[in-house]
Specification:
The chain is an alpha/beta fold. The chain is built from nine helices and seven strands. The protein is globular and about 125 Å long. Keywords: Chromatin regulator, Methyltransferase, Nucleus, Repressor, rRNA processing, S-adenosyl-L-methionine, Transcription, Transcription regulation, Transferase.
Length: about 290
């Protein structure tokens, strides 16, 4: 009897172990778990699939807009390059008449100009602004070719701003070789990337006329225009011509890779025997600054 009892106990133990293993397998079965979750939460309804046709339409519309934006930018860039070349290859008087007929082209030009300047690591107008702040707000300034009049908006000095077209009451539209300023009434004359016309020397002659003796002439120009190895003018010949006009050279700044800064002062007294007549000065040719397509 004892032997039969022991056998029964062993058989019962085996059955219990097999039942335990079956439960563990069932608990670890993912499909079983999913079935349990589904039965426990009958309200869980699968999310509807997103309409793939809507996604395709949205993607196509996005690509179309991107293409149109690129085409508009390319068209605007083409207009800017055309206008830029025009300004470099005509006189100031011709440019004034050109923009008088179609003033909206001037806005187009300046929009393109601002886009080009956005790629420069440093802007020359900001250096001139700092220079004026260092020298004091009492100096009266004439900004020849002022553009958006950034100079006047960022200093406390009295600034006379001149350009070919004016959409701003503070900017005077004129030919820069013939301004309304009185002779010897200005302390600082500024040309910031604005010696563009074929008659640029007449702009500098006008600056000489309006500057007081001892007044400053500040010129910032694109560096490539003064690179003799690529058809540009020799900066020394440019400086020499301005000195013959009646200025003395104070300094040149070649540090920036994009532009050069020239600093001159109008001579206090002119020696009539040394001063050349305006028509006898040999002005170097400044090549046009033509921007490449991006």
């Amino acid at each position: 009897m004892k032997r039969e009892s022991v056998m029964e106990d062993r058989e019962g133990s085996r059955k219990r172990k097999r039942a335990g293993r079956c439960r563990r397998k069932t608990d670890n079965n993912p499909s079983h778990l999913n079935k349990q979750i589904s039965e426990a939460h009958p309200a869980n309804v699968p999310q509807p699939k997103q309409d793939s046709s809507n996604l395709k339409t949205s993607h196509k519309a996005s690509k179309t807009l991107s293409f149109l934006d690129k085409m508009k930018a390319r068209l605007a860039g083409g207009h800017f390059r055309m206008l830029n070349e025009k300004l470099y290859t005509c006189t100031g008087k011709e440019a004034l008449e050109y923009f008088k007929e179609e003033p909206e082209l001037f806005d187009m030009y300046h929009a393109g100009y601002q886009e080009q300047m956005s790629h420069w690591p440093e802007l020359p107008v900001n250096i001139i602004i700092k220079w004026l702040k260092d020298y004091g707000s009492s100096l009266v300034v004439a900004d020849f070719g002022c553009g958006d009049a950034r100079l006047a908006k960022n200093v406390k000095n009295k600034v006379f701003s001149f350009d070919l077209v004016s959409n701003d009451p503070s900017v005077v539209a004129c030919d820069m070789s013939n301004t309304s300023l009185d002779s010897e009434s200005i302390d600082v004359a500024v040309f910031c990337l604005s010696l563009m016309g074929t008659n640029f020397s007449s702009y500098l002659q006008e600056a000489y006329r309006v500057l007081k003796p001892g007044g400053w002439l500040l010129i910032a120009e694109v560096k490539s225009r003064f690179d003799p190895t690529s058809g540009g003018a020799d900066p020394n010949n440019f400086t020499k011509a301005i000195c013959e006009l009646g200025f003395s050279s104070v300094s040149k700044d070649f540090a920036n890779k994009m532009f050069i800064l020239f600093y001159f002062k109008k001579k206090e007294e002119q020696n009539s025997t040394k001063k050349k007549k305006k028509k006898d000065i040999e002005w170097p040719e400044l090549k046009p600054c033509l921007y490449k397509r991006r």
